[in-house]
Design goal:
Number of strands: 29
Shape: rod-shaped
Distance between the termini: 151 Å
CATH architecture of the largest domain: Sandwich
Low-confidence stretches: 1-14, 251-270, 272-304
Strand content: 35-45%
Helix content: under 10%
CATH topology of the largest domain: Immunoglobulin-like
């Protein structure tokens, strides 16, 4: 007959008892560390005795001399059968026990999904998934905390918007072993805003300037700040913007830079005067048709 963990066998001339217990710190009936099955037996009628205890663990045999036996549990599920042998020589009934061991902490997996920008940042909202595995007993729960908020049960991917976020995932195995993973996410979906300051210079007519003009700008916006302001003049290559940019005079192709020389056609002279073609230095400013100020081009006259 059995009573609790005690198996008692009674025969005509022998009476033996067999007891067992499992040693471990357990959660949900599972051991989270080292564990063993402790078996003991006694023969109550002299002169008979118990010379040995034998049995199987997960199908593999074991045996101990004497009235006690300690059998370690291995990772996973352990099913035992055992019996105490008597010098009486009869065939005793078998006892049985089981125990599970899970010493493995879970691991957490996940891959952030979004449009990647510079410096490890994302320029779109980020989808945050997670999964867990590795625990011998299986995964009991996954929870997460976003930016220090109370933990919430993880039920599926969630979205992280603008800002710098700290997400802590915690997975717990059925046996009670747990592990955590901290994930940092930087998201900036804002577009930079560019502000052009009023152009400075001497104003002419029809939107032209009568002097070199200075153009300056500033940029802002976005959570992550401005990394590299650049500018380009008339479709040329981009250059780093470090301060105000001077826009100089833009002459037509037939009007060389100031100080250059060109042949200037001379109109017919007034009656009584003769004209000679003169190679003249071009003025320092564009012709009157290109800006609001006025001027003249000198040429030489001689009397006949």
């Amino acid at each position: 007959m059995t009573a609790g963990g005690l198996l008692i066998e009674q025969g005509a001339v022998t009476s033996r008892s067999l007891s067992h217990h499992r040693t471990c710190g357990s959660a949900n009936g599972r051991c989270r560390g080292s564990a063993s099955l402790e078996i003991s037996s006694s023969e109550t009628i002299p002169p008979y005795s118990i010379p040995a205890i034998e049995g199987t663990r997960k199908g593999a045999t074991f045996a101990c001399n004497g009235i006690t036996c300690s059998v370690p549990l291995v990772e996973g599920v352990n099913n035992f059968t055992f019996r105490a042998l008597s010098t009486w020589g009869d065939s005793p009934r078998m006892g049985n026990a089981s125990g599970s061991v899970d010493t493995q902490a879970p691991f957490i997996n996940g891959s952030l999904s979004g449009i990647a920008g510079n410096g490890g940042r994302f320029v779109s909202a980020v989808e945050v998934p997670a999964s867990a595995g590795g625990a011998t007993s299986g995964i009991g729960s996954i929870v997460y905390s976003l930016d220090g908020a109370p933990q919430a049960a993880y039920t599926g991917p969630f979205s992280a918007g603008d800002g710098t976020h700290s997400i802590v995932f915690t997975a717990t195995g059925i046996a009670g072993n747990g592990s955590s993973q901290n994930v940092h996410v930087n998201v900036d979906t804002g577009q930079p805003a560019i502000s052009i300051d009023p152009v400075s210079g001497t104003s002419g007519d029809n939107g032209w300037f009568a002097s070199s003009a200075t153009v300056s700008a500033s940029a802002g916006g976005g959570i992550s700040g401005i990394a590299l302001p650049q500018y380009s003049v008339d479709g040329g290559p981009s250059a780093a913007y470090a301060g105000p940019v001077a826009a100089r005079r833009n002459r037509p192709a037939h009007h060389p830079p100031a100080g250059g020389r060109t042949e200037i056609p001379i109109p017919p002279p007034p009656a009584g005067l003769s004209a000679s073609s003169e190679t003249a230095r071009s003025p320092a400013a564009p012709p009157p048709s290109h800006r609001g100020n006025t001027g003249s081009i000198p040429y030489l006259l001689s009397r006949r």
